[in-house]
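[#protein-structures] MJ: dropping Mevalonate kinase here for a structure pass
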Amino acid sequence: MLSEVLLVSAPGKVILHGEHAVVHGKVALAVALNLRTFLRLQPHSNGKVGLNLPNIGIKRAWVVAKLQMLDTSFLKQGDVTALTPEQVEKLKEVAGFPEDCADHEHLAVLSFLYLYLSICQSQRALPSLDVTVWSELPTGAGLGSSAAYSVCLAAALLTACEEIPNPLKDGEAASRWTEESLELINKWAFQGERVIHGNPSGVDNAVSTWGGGLRYQKGKISSLKSVETSAAGVKPVAGRSRPPALKILLINTKVPRSTKALVAGVRSRLLKFPEIVAPLLTSIDAISLECERVLGEMAAAPAPEHYLVLEELIDMNQHHLNALGVGHASLDRLCQVTMAYGLHSKLTGAGGGGCGITLLRPDLEQPEVEAMKQALTSCGFDCWETSIGAPGVSIHTAASLDAPVRQALDGL
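AK: finished. structure tokens for Mevalonate kinase:
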């Protein structure tokens, strides 16, 4: 067991193109969002394991000796397999939860316990440690916050238990794990996600692990070689091209929606108007493929005209999504406000409210961006100026983290 403090971060995700069409076998492009989740793992010798999630006001601790006495043989050592519903109930007993709890706060704690007990089984005795996780990502907004959480937990616990080597060398501000270690992190993170979501696609945790961009179709996930960037001090994975990250404005309309209901709505529209809706889905597929091609060109030699094409694709996709019935008045308002500044936006994720993204061209003056953010905020929306194509899960020195992040992790 390593004795030093570990500081880990992982990105959220947005769908660039292909939402809803992906349900019907078309291509979706998912990219890492440079709003990150940060984790601090502190080993100690007080005989307790603690979890602190300041974003959702959760603080829990368990006596290691008591956990050690429980029958956790249902968590096979080193076995990355899905939990059965019976095993989830057993885990709830371990956590001291009532049987019928299914809210995300409880599931986040359950996911932590599952990963801690499973990964740390390799140690002679379960280790005493404190884990604090703080995120820049809003929860429940379709931005992959639970996947970033699971990825951070898996990476930190595997490294602390020396299942994978700590890649941070002296003098480095930040570093990334080898491809082999990332594979293992991703496998465990996917199981952590399953505790929270039941049956996730695996896209969110893959984007959070590897960063950059991924293409997803019919359950197959492959890397978008063209959308991966290297943060200062983060070593790019050999053989992958890394152009500059695309700058975006991420806007949360804060209008709640049900993904399930929206997906069902598109399905019933497809059944009712097959001749109209099927071509829309095919067209969205073509938009994803064209976007992938343009991003590939930008990796080699970015030019201003590439941004014009990306903007046209954004507009066309937003119109298609409206035609599928997943738009919302709040999203129309968002598009109107950004269009007044000559900028192009679309919903990202399920629609019906939720979040939208606006592409920020490199030639934009900062005062313009500020004025637009002001206009969006006065509509009651939350805005973040960030980038996509961010690096995946990374390990940091304390000095390399911004002061607000350090303070949040130190519980100040």
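MJ: nice. Confidence is low (pLDDT under 50) at residues 228-243.
AK: one more thing. The radius of gyration is 21 Å.
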